[in-house]
Design goal:
The chain is of the alpha/beta class. The protein contains 16 helices and 12 strands. A 6-stranded parallel β-sheet has the order 3-2-1-4-5-6, with helices on both faces. Helix 6 packs across helix 14. The longest helix has 25 residues. The structure holds nicotinamide-adenine-dinucleotide (NAD), 6-O-phosphono-alpha-D-glucopyranose and manganese (II) ion (MN).
């Protein structure tokens, strides 16, 4: 069996140890000969890498391990790049959330003005990773889950149309794990789903078991009462109280269109007033993550390094991240697994822009994804999606042409923003906060090559 060389880009991520443990747990399905970590923050990565090295020594000493900030070392001799970078790190996430909130607007990592700001930072970072990969390992595939995935996907469609990059999100996975639990199934893979939308902006339209029985009625009954809240969920990533509130709020999101089951992220678009009222402008999700997951993961890694052993370590395998192995296997072994990916519409949704990047089921094989046909979507979703696709396209357009005007339009068009006046105030604050990360924007039209 061929063994693969895997590079984790964003090696210093809080998710790296959980993913490394998950990869080690799946070596029988996806054998690895070399595992490398790459980050542009040497110090941050060193803590995670120091612990991962010890984990590997104990569990799979045959795997060659390297952590580096040197792109050539990192990207040479690689089969898969698993990319999860956060350009600007949590310090900038905190501003993405707090700046809009100061203006009474939703402050969120990937939705609304915060997501737009993050997108303006991520585009350059992800393009850089693609260029390194193509230079040093031209046959490799990038499995990207760096956010905001919708904007990143639109940017790579437009600027690197032939690159081997697959954009994927774990939110549907987490929700489907909860659905399986509601239904009393052992595994979400016992469900066959139909779903359409954009990233963090979609709906399940059909869920059946392997015999073709309709599972939607039972799910709807639960969601109408409890949203996606379930006791002791197997999803060990989305566990904080704020996530429970989001899963519960899916009840109200569902009520708006009881023909479908919604993605949790729609709450930011349908109930922005509620979200703002329930936000603390001084303490947002970024603060929760820095005090929670980041402290925990880095603390555990430091202990492993100090003890030169994982004994007693509380780091846990990120089981829900196994979808990344499913995706790598689909490419490596031509498994034709059915997965939700963010791909160019190209007519899958008949009544939507063919160039929109949509999240839909695809059959994935060694040549990449083959999207399934969705057909026509209802007026409600069509209207919402056209607006949101335009936001995402305008952000990329603004980045490409360095246009202040286009970015102002993008923020104005976001359903989370009440007026062009508020959009401009937020934009001007975001420009100031992001001056080390965004390209310089011009108020007059200029042509940038
Ligand atoms: P984190 O800040 O802990 O980790 C990100 C790492 O990326 C940091 O170590 C940082 O130094 C590094 N980095 C930043 N810019 C870089 C660049 N240009 N080149 C190389 N490395 C760079 O963040 P996290 O909370 O662990 O999340 C990591 C990423 O994964 C985020 O983009 C997050 O949104 C994303 N994520 C996506 C999904 C999904 O569903 N698609 C799920 C979970 C997390
Ligand atoms: C979900 C989404 C990701 C997002 C994450 C944020 O998993 O699919 O795209 O990055 O939530 O989680 P956090 O715990 O960092 O707020
Ligand atoms: Mn996501």
């Amino acid at each position: 069996m061929k063994k693969f060389s895997v590079l984790i880009a964003g090696g210093g991520s809080t998710f790296t140890p959980g993913i490394v443990l998950m990869l080690l747990d799946h070596l029988n399905k996806f054998p690895i000969r070399k595992l490398k970590l790459y980050d542009n923050d040497e110090e941050r990565q060193a803590t995670i890498a120091g612990a991962c090295e010890i984990i590997l020594k104990e569990r799979a000493p045959e795997i060659e391990f390297l952590a580096t900030t040197n792109p050539e070392e990192a990207f040479t001799d690689v089969d898969f790049v698993m990319a999860h970078i956060r350009v600007g790190k949590y310090a900038m996430r905190e501003l993405d959330e707090k700046i809009p909130l100061k203006h009474g607007v939703v402050g969120q990592e990937t939705c609304g003005p915060g997501g737009i700001a993050y997108g303006m930072r991520s585009i350059g970072g992800v393009l850089e990773l693609i260029d390194y990969m193509e230079k040093y390992s031209p046959d490799a595939w990038m499995l990207n889950y760096s956010n905001p995935a919708a904007i990143v996907a639109e940017a790579t469609r437009r600027l690197r149309p032939n690159s081997k990059i697959l954009n994927i999100c774990d939110m549907p996975i987490g929700i489907e794990m909860r659905m399986a639990q509601i239904l009393g199934l052992n595994d979400r893979k016992e469900m066959n789903v139909r779903y359409f939308g954009l990233n963090h902006f979609g709906w399940w339209t059909e869920i059946r078991d392997k015999d073709g029985n309709d599972l939607m009625p039972k799910l709807k009954e639960h969601v109408a009462k409890h949203g996606y809240n379930v006791p002791n969920s197997a999803d060990n990533q989305h566990v904080d109280q704020s996530w429970n509130e989001t899963f519960l709020k899916a009840r109200d999101v569902y009520a708006l269109d009881p023909n479908t089951l919604p993605n949790t992220y729609l709450k930011y678009y349908f109930f922005p007033d509620y979200v703002v009222e329930h936000s603390n402008p001084e303490y947002t999700r970024a603060n929760e993550v820095m005090e929670g997951r980041e402290k925990f993961v880095f603390g555990e890694c430091r202990k492993i390094i100090e003890n030169q052993s994982t004994e007693g370590s509380k780091l846990h395998i990120d089981e829900h991240a196994a979808y990344i192995v499913d995706l790598a296997r689909a490419i490596a072994y031509n498994t034709h697994e059915r997965m939700l990916l963010i791909v160019e519409n190209k007519g899958s949704i008949i009544n939507l822009d063919p160039t929109a990047m949509v999240e839909i089921p695809c059959i994935v094989g060694s040549n990449g994804p083959e999207p399934l046909s969705i057909g026509e979507i209802p007026q409600f979703q069509k209207g919402l999606m056209e607006q949101q696709v335009s936001v995402e396209k305008l952000v990329v357009e603004a980045w490409v042409t360095r246009s202040y005007q286009k970015l102002w339009q993008a923020i104005t068009l976001s359903k989370t923003v009440p007026s062009a006046k508020v959009a401009k105030e937020i934009l001007d604050d975001l420009i100031e906060a992001n001056k080390d990360f965004w390209p310089e924007l011009h108020k007059d039209d200029v042509v940038v090559s």
